[in-house]
Design brief:
Keywords: Coiled coil, Membrane, Transmembrane, Transmembrane helix. The chain has 283 residues and is α+β, with helices and mostly antiparallel strands. The protein is built from 8 helices and 5 strands.
Length: 283
């Protein structure tokens, strides 16, 4: 009985020793894991993602520019009465919010010409062309063209945005400049950038003006000799016109010769002086 009790005590002691070892190993493992967690949490945070360069940001912003289309046109219309047709043109211009930029009137013996440079909003350009084609007179010629300047506009806009960024950087450098030499150099850079920015902005304004307002060169033509009602011309009319033209040419020649009378008077004088000089030479 005593031996049995001693065996049980020994078994219990051995079991307790194994349990303590397992517990110590578990605690050690927990400390290792905890230490790793602490080291991970105390490590430096990941660096922020690299920021885009100013030019890249500018490019993405400029890519949203809408299409830039410049429309131009030339029309020549034959009319029966220049003044009446000019009144019709003014009415059409009012309806389409257009205006006359330049006006040139020429009156010759054969015809009358009224040349107009018209600026019209881009959206009303086609309607204006149709109105002139239908209600003014007989269209002799018409030429319409479109030019896509989106790429050119985008390129100038990107360069302009970048120049403005550089300008701000130079201005910041100017505030921190420590000597006169650096200040003068930075001011020269700033002056050059400001001039380039003014040129670029002017070019963008010019393109915007051409895009927003289309240009139409309109010419109103009236023939004086023959009206549009007598478009069929026979041999007799042509023969009479030829005789008239020949007589007018002859009269023009006679008048041209008469206009040279001072030279004709000078010829006898030159002959007299030449003979007199020749006679003296012989003596």
């Amino acid at each position: 009985m005593k031996n049995l009790i001693l065996l049980l005590i020994s078994f219990t002691f051995i079991h307790c020793s194994k349990s303590d070892g397992i517990a110590e190993q578990k605690v050690s493992a927990d400390l290792v894991v905890s230490d790793k967690l602490v080291n991970f949490s105390e490590s430096e945070p990941a660096p922020p993602p690299p920021q885009e360069e100013p030019q890249q940001r500018t490019t993405k912003r400029i890519d949203t520019i809408s299409k830039k289309i410049i429309k131009n046109g030339d029309m020549r219309i034959q009319v029966g009465d220049i003044k009446k047709s000019q009144g019709q043109v003014n009415e059409i211009l009012k309806k389409n919010n257009a205006y006359i930029q330049t006006e040139d009137f020429r009156n010759s013996d054969a015809d009358e010409n009224l040349n107009l440079t018209i600026r019209v909003p881009h959206k009303n350009f086609d309607a204006l062309i149709n109105s002139f084609s239908d209600g003014i007179g007989s269209v002799l010629s018409k030429n319409i063209s479109s030019e896509d300047v989106t790429e050119e506009y985008t390129d100038v806009a990107i360069k302009l945005a970048n120049k403005k960024i550089y300008l701000e950087k130079y201005r910041d450098l100017l505030k921190r400049a420590s000597n006169t030499k650096d200040m003068l150099e930075i001011q020269e850079k700033i002056r050059g950038l400001e001039d380039e920015i003014d040129v670029a902005e002017g070019k963008l304004r010019f393109i915007d003006d051409r895009v927003n307002y289309s240009t139409l060169n309109l010419s109103l033509y009236k023939e004086k000799v023959r009206s549009s009602a007598t478009s069929k011309i026979g041999f007799g009319s042509r023969f009479g016109d030829s005789l008239t033209q020949g007589w007018n040419s002859f009269i023009s020649f006679i008048l041209g010769v008469i206009s040279l009378w001072p030279f004709f008077l000078a010829i006898p004088v030159l002959i007299f002086l030449w003979r007199k000089w020749k006679g003296r030479r012989k003596k």
